[in-house]
Amino acid sequence: MLTVTDSLTAGWLLLAGRVLIALVYLVSGLHKAVWYQKAVDEFRMAGAPLIPITLPGTILLHIAAAICLILGTYTQLAALALVVFTIPATLMVHGFWRSTGVERLIDSRIFLGNLGLIGGLLTIAAVGPGHYALS
Length: 135
Description:
Strand content: under 5%
Radius of gyration: 16 Å
Distance between the termini: 32 Å
Largest sheet: none
Number of strands: 0
C-alpha cells in the first residue's frame, strides 16, 4: 500500500491537485469572458436566470476562486464557493435524466466528471491548501 508520510511530498501532491482542479474553472471563466455572447447564448439555452448578473458573477467566481486555489490563499473558502456553484449548475445544465440519445450519454459523462470535481474541491476544503501555499 502506498502511503505519503513525508509532509513535503503530500504538499506537492496537494499543490498539483489544487492547480489541476483550478485550471478547469480558470479556463472556463476565461472562455466565458472572451466569448461572452456565446456564453450568453449557452446560459439562455440552459434556462439560467438573470443572465446580466449570473454570467458576470460566474466569470468572476471561476477566475477569482481558481487563482485562490492556485496560490493557496483563501483555499478552503474558494473550494467551498466552487462546490456551491457547481452543484446547482451541474443539475441545471447536465441533468442527463432529461436528455435522450447521444445527448444523454454526453450529459451523463459531464455530470459524473463534475461530481469528481466536487469531490476534489471537498477534499481541498477538508484538508486545506497543504505546505505550498501563500496562506
